Amino acid sequence: MNSTGKNGKAGTAAVILLAFLLFYFPSMLALLSKDSEPKDMTIFNILIATCYTGIFCVNYFLIVPKILFGKDNKVLFFIINLILVICLCSLLPLWFETHGGMPRPRHLQNIPLTAGQLFMGYIRFIIRDGVMMVLSIALAYALCLSKAREEMRRRVLELEAERRNTELMSLKAQLNPHFLFNSLNNIYALIAIDADKAQQALHELSNMLRFMIYDSEAETVSLSKEMQFISDYSRLMSLRLNPSVRLTCDLPVIHDNSMKIAPLLILTLVENAFKHVAITENTGMIEIKIFFDNSWLCCTVRNTCSNDRTGNLEKGTSGVGLTNMEKQLELIYPDAYSFKTTKKNHVFMADLKIKTSALVN
Fold first, then answer.
1. Are 229 and 267 in contact (CB under 8 A)?
2. Three-state SS for 334?
């Protein structure tokens, strides 16, 4: 049985229990009490409680959801309930009158009542029980409205989750070809320089593609696998770096298998560093540093760059670069990350932080 069916039965049971506590419980206590009212008076109250419960259940399970909410027919809703209340308030006194008269409390049993007093007693009965029946209808409406709003809220959350999942899958679909395109371009350029290194790079690329095909399709991968992938990628990209470019890759050794991260998320920072690195003053550098700082996983990527390339990078005009990554961060780790980019003295730095609690949960 699915969770929806279980929730529906649990809700029905809760409504029935609520009706019992509201309408029957006081009369049942009076029936079991030694100093209670006469039995016929208690039985009368139980019958009246049954009327309240009947009106409540008919409205909760049928009239409100089917007519008021389902067909949005307010007029029919009021007409049906008006007929129910008038019929019950009219027929109940008539039925008791034809079956020995209306029960009276203990203190009025031996006191003769005038016609005016009897008439006023009937009026009080109609007003009191009519109001109670109306309150039963109002309670059924309020519970149905609360249930409908909760159902709407749940559907909105499901639609939002589905939208976020669809958007995330779209972003991943953009990232994978982007990574493959850049890697193949690097290997193609490397073939003309060093065929042996190109062959080695192709072998490493096949290993990384295996990760992307089988592991990156999951919502999360272990942080240790992600670090290994970044290490392999950096080594692959370094094969065609200009000798003047110094590469530093400082990655943590992860022993905690419970820490997981969205696959290929940090790759964008590393990929952009290799793509936009520039040689300034006869030298260049790429620094990749990932470490833990208290309750944060920190990733800092720095690279020398030229003014025009860095300007484009900061604006995310590559289409699948930093803008793509920021969208993924917002979708996966809302309120649990920090990301900023800075440029100073021809050095571009991307600083990403993700709360470790988000990686565990």
1. yes
2. coil
Q: Please give the average per-residue pLDDT across 69-73, as a whole number.
A: 83
Q: How far is CA 360 from CA 100, 121, 168, 333, 355, in A?
A: 73, 69, 20, 12, 9
Q: What DSSP element (H or E) covers 100?
A: none
Element (H, E) at 176: helix 115-193
Query: Beta strand 245-250 with 221-222: parallel, antiparallel or unpaired?
Result: unpaired
212 to 198, 226, 330: CA distances (angstroms)? 20, 10, 22
Q: Reduce the DSSP state of residue 245 to 3 states and report it.
A: strand
CA distance 113 to 122: 12
The tokens of 322 are what?
């930093």
Instruction: State the Cα–Cα distance between residues 337 and 327, nearest whole angstrom.
Output: 12
Where residue 309 falls among pLDDT bands split at 50, 70, 90? very low
Residue, of 120 and 60, whose pLDDT is higher: 60
Residue located via tokens 């639609």: 159
Structure tokens at 14: 């809760």
Average pLDDT over residues 316-329: 67
